[in-house]
Amino acid sequence: MEAKRIEKRGLSEISHPILENETVKLGIERKNVFEKIQELNEKMNIMNDTVSKKILNMDFEKNIADKLHKELQEYKNDLYFQLIKPLIMDLINMRERMRKAVKYFSKETGEKKVEILESYVEEIETILENNNIEIYETKKEENDYKVKKQRIVKQIKTSDEKLHGKICNILTNGYIYTEKDKIIFPERVEVYVYKNS
């Protein structure tokens, strides 16, 4: 019986350290897992903070971009008005002078009426010059049609082959924007077209 006790005792003494080792290993593993979970939680918290900051920054940047776009649009609109304001003011002044002249126009003589009308034509020319618009007119000697500077509004039939493509009449002046050397309103012309009779 004692041998059995010794056996049992020996077994318990032998198996007890093994169980302790297992328990210690499990405790260490649990501790490692717990530490890794804590580490992951900390990383997740850092990532959440980073994402939250990014979202706040994106909202802030979007608000700034919207505000800048609105300010830029207002600036562009104001700039456009500032560019055309001198022209608008000239037109307003001219309209007011014309309104005054209309009141007395019927009482004036024929010559005086023509002078008044010519003064408005000159005033318009001045307004155009102030806005870098030059008026051009082709000389009678230069009677060849030029595609860029002239627009045909009527073709006049001719039996003279030498006149084909030549300008018959210049109906309007042409207008060129001098800063860009760009024709904004070509001369309106009538051109001869050869037709064999």
From TrEMBL:
InterPro entries: GrpE. It holds the Pfam family GrpE. Residues 30-78 form a coiled coil. The keyword Coiled coil applies. The keyword Coiled coil applies. Keywords: Coiled coil. This is Nucleotide exchange factor GrpE. The lineage of its organism: Bacteria, Fusobacteriati, Fusobacteriota, Fusobacteriia, Fusobacteriales.
